[in-house]
UniProtKB/TrEMBL annotation:
<feature type="binding site">
    <location>
        <position position="610"/>
    </location>
    <ligand>
        <name>L-homocysteine</name>
    </ligand>
</feature>
<feature type="active site" description="Proton donor">
    <location>
        <position position="705"/>
    </location>
</feature>
<feature type="binding site">
    <location>
        <begin position="526"/>
        <end position="527"/>
    </location>
    <ligand>
        <name>5-methyltetrahydropteroyltri-L-glutamate</name>
    </ligand>
</feature>
<comment type="pathway">
    <text>Amino-acid biosynthesis; L-methionine biosynthesis via de novo pathway; L-methionine from L-homocysteine (MetE route): step 1/1.</text>
</comment>
<feature type="binding site">
    <location>
        <position position="495"/>
    </location>
    <ligand>
        <name>L-methionine</name>
    </ligand>
</feature>
<dbReference type="InterPro" id="IPR013215">
    <property type="entry name" value="Cbl-indep_Met_Synth_N"/>
</dbReference>
<feature type="binding site">
    <location>
        <position position="652"/>
    </location>
    <ligand>
        <name>Zn(2+)</name>
    </ligand>
</feature>
<keyword id="KW-0489">Methyltransferase</keyword>
<feature type="binding site">
    <location>
        <position position="654"/>
    </location>
    <ligand>
        <name>Zn(2+)</name>
    </ligand>
</feature>
<feature type="domain" description="Cobalamin-independent methionine synthase MetE C-terminal/archaeal">
    <location>
        <begin position="437"/>
        <end position="759"/>
    </location>
</feature>
<feature type="binding site">
    <location>
        <begin position="442"/>
        <end position="444"/>
    </location>
    <ligand>
        <name>L-methionine</name>
    </ligand>
</feature>
<dbReference type="Pfam" id="PF01717">
    <property type="entry name" value="Meth_synt_2"/>
</dbReference>
<feature type="binding site">
    <location>
        <position position="610"/>
    </location>
    <ligand>
        <name>L-methionine</name>
    </ligand>
</feature>
<comment type="function">
    <text>Catalyzes the transfer of a methyl group from 5-methyltetrahydrofolate to homocysteine resulting in methionine formation.</text>
</comment>
<dbReference type="InterPro" id="IPR002629">
    <property type="entry name" value="Met_Synth_C/arc"/>
</dbReference>
<keyword id="KW-0808">Transferase</keyword>
<keyword id="KW-0677">Repeat</keyword>
Amino acid sequence: MQTHILGYPRIGSKRELKKACEQYWSGKIVLEELLTAGRNICSQNWTIQKEAGIDLIPCNDFSYYDQVLDMSLIVGAIPTRYHEVALKNNSSELDLYFAMARGYQKEGLDITAMEMTKWFDTNYHYIVPEFYKNQQFKLNSNKIFNEFSGAKQAGINAKPVIIGLVSYLLLGKEKEDGFDKLDLAENLLPVYIEILARLQEQGAEWIQFDEPFLALDLSGKAKEKYQWVYEKIRKQFPKLKFIVATYFDGLKDNVSLAVSLPVNVLHIDLVRNPEQLDDVLQSVPENLSLSLGVVDGRNIWKNNYEKSLSFITKAVEKLGSESIFIAPSSSLLHSPCDLDFETNLNAEIKNWLAFAKQKVKEVVTLKELASGTADEKILADFEDNKKAIADRKTSSLIHNDAVKQIANTVTEEDAQRKSPFKIRKEEQQKVLQLPLFPTTTIGSFPQTAEVRSWRAKFKKGDLTAEQYDTLLKEETQRTIRWQEEIGIDVLVHGEFERNDMVEYFGEQLKGFTFTKNGWVQSYGSRCVKPPVIFGDVSRPDPMTVYWSQYAQSQTEKWVKGMLTGPVTILQWSFVRDDQPRSETCKQIALAIRDEVVDLEKAGIRIIQIDEPAIREGLPLRKSEWQNYLKWAVEAFRISSSGVEDATQIHTHMCYSEFNDIIKNIADMDADVITIECSRSQMELLNAFADFKYPNEIGPGVYDIHSPRVPSKEEMIELLIKAQNVIPAEQLWVNPDCGLKTRHWDETEKALIAMVEAAKESALAL
Ligand code: GLN
Ligand code: ZN
């Protein structure tokens, strides 16, 4: 039996990579210093794994920005627009690489960055390879070889991690018509062969190919390519040992394909899809070993050793222990680095957790336990593990019977507004008296350095609660006055009191906790620190009523209450794994519902529940979409249905395509939905138009992701486009998203123009 790790976090346990990259980009350090920072992180990571006793330690899992972009650089998939950067004097390979990642705007060049998108269903974002017809590839970087020799110097014969050829192609995008990216396999294969030949020459014995697409729905053509590629590779390298790694879902209908590939080891994710073990064991041929992904690579909970051992034992019985590898379910890229840094966590909760460094140890411990070589210390660890797991099952920190009771007794009526939209619309109009093309914003106004400095000072104790409160009130009041002055119809308070749209709520809800250093890479040097949902969720006190009520007291106009929806809170947190996600989501929904009802009681008649993450929660396999959408939509409805007909519920979504889920969005039954739309020139509205979406819609007319100020005429133009597909009386006028990242001067100009555009459009009718 052997252990291996699919990949280790590369940001550094103190986010050293973030700091080094950002300093390099701003010219504060030179290339050699950045490279040193990178090498140090690699060697720290290798040391952790070596000392823990891991058998196969990965290399090339490190990256200065993104592992898919690394692959594009290595195989020379470099779009022509970057060739000028490569030709610049003194420009290094990394400068070209960063230009591809971030764009290049200096020395007379102005080149856009490559597109970025989400890595499967994680919050990690990768740089999308660009493919062209008849594209040629060539080995273009020594990164992978350098990393391999770096490990060798550290005394490790590392296992290079390479994105498998088929997955690499499937991750990319065709940038011109008339070809299929999978047809590039033939041109790309020689470069893969060259890479493998060089690694073999350097002394590599093991190679890991990441092929996550094997766990997704595959076309017939993709299946053929898998066979073709691995047969070719095997033929060239009869002696290299290959691991094909799948993760994030089960092999399901691809089991027979996966086990037939001529490789040495197949890795499967038993956290996401434990059911696949039986299927795989039934069909695995004699010469194929199995890597069991039993330690969760994507979440922060301590492994349940007893449960993992039951999988391992089953596999050993069938295949024999020499054919078994033990591993985390996926790369540990998605876990925070080291729990030891968490000195402020509640000790009981901390005892339920494991971050990357702890997970490495878990993998080794499982091997010792499974192979009967455990010493006394490890046997004691096993006892502690059982205790921690048992404690989590019954802890009063987690379990709140009242919450469970309420969640169990939710009825269909609770997820249903009192009357259908048509009637609600009339009731709302009686109260709200809004004009045609009502104007509003999405919630946040600029979070200036000043506003952020107040929060920092307050947290440090340099401002008293009263002083902080006064400053926020002044900022809120100014924002209300200004919105009144320029004639916005539905005002917002500005969200100045919020650090983050999930953290702000998590901090006030029971069942949540926060880490000090639990950073996870989101993209490039950007990291996020997701809240931890460890227990039953409840809302001890109102969370937003104070600020909404204050803002409403400052004006005769309507102020919109502003909440984050249950699906988004769930999606952007580490979620407990001891009950279904749907159950946790329902609990959050009930807490938000209480808040919605309290806002209504406090006189707030328009309440927005943001759900920007509803689409990203979609399962990877299409066959599971409906189940997810059912509980996700229901959670939104539970959160929004406690109010009277006359109270208007808004929701907001961004970065979404809506075509394939429009019916479900309509099922959410928000009175008004605001969506990001301006960059697509209202094209996103077509999904709503084709569906004859019955409720009201605010398609964003102003792209807030750029400092550019749109003109009134442009926005009128967009509104005309919108009216071509959606009846005018259903339309609202608003920006694409919140304004927290913008500056006041551009925000002011843009919103003044937006209000004028709405008024002129109304007059033109
Ligand atoms: N209400 C939030 C804001 O305006 C919405 C943010 C989002 O959609 N991501 O900031
Ligand atoms: Zn948004």
